[in-house]
Design goal:
Helix content: 10-25%
Structural class: alpha+beta
Distance between the termini: 47 Å
Shape: elongated
Strand order of the largest sheet: 7-6-5-8-14
Order of helices and strands: HEHEHEEHHEEEEEEEEEE
Largest sheet: 5 strands, antiparallel
Amino acid sequence: MLDLVKLEAVAQRYPAELSGGQQQRVALARAMVVRPEVLLLDEPLSNLDANLREEMAGEIRRLHDEFNFTTVYVTHDQTEAMTISDRIAVLNLGKLEQIDTPWNLYNRPRTRFVAGFIGQTNLVEGHVRDGQIRLRGLEGVLPMGGQAAAASADMRISIRPQSLFLGPQGNGALPMGAVSVVARTYLGEYWDYLVRPTAGGDELKVHAPPSSVLDVGHESLLSIDPAGVALVS
């Protein structure tokens, strides 16, 4: 078991003489050495730094796949959950909001809580009619894509920031109307823009590539990829 958790080189040491990540591996080895049918891990990486958390998350997934035992993993870290899980159950104040695959939770959240808890999103007001979604302050319409809704109803819409684009955009994104840049933050891997429809409506967060440099006050065409749009209750 020490070989499997890559601790054979320190087998003669006491756990207290090991690093934090190595101690976590010792705890995993102790839990798995009895070959459990179900393994419960409650916030197992909460005391590790970011690099160790990422390394150990991959290690837990590898060991799960190798031994093929069911693992119930409790965490508040969405990245850990998405990395490790086949299915995720999202709990809110003891209520099960949604249980689904990581892809469905992210792309098809059913409630506002799930949409806001799993990754970043824009929760905006919209109107559904004739199988199309209309957003306040924007001219274009979005297809519902098979999502269930009343024939005509006001609803909350979840739109992921990376599904919004500033300027002409292909790849299935649909033009929605003009917006102006209200604020911006450079985060290295992308620009985090806050934009407002020029005709009024909800402000929207947009993630743009580093090469897309727009000043505050700049007006641009907004396009939206319907794949990143979900109706939520």
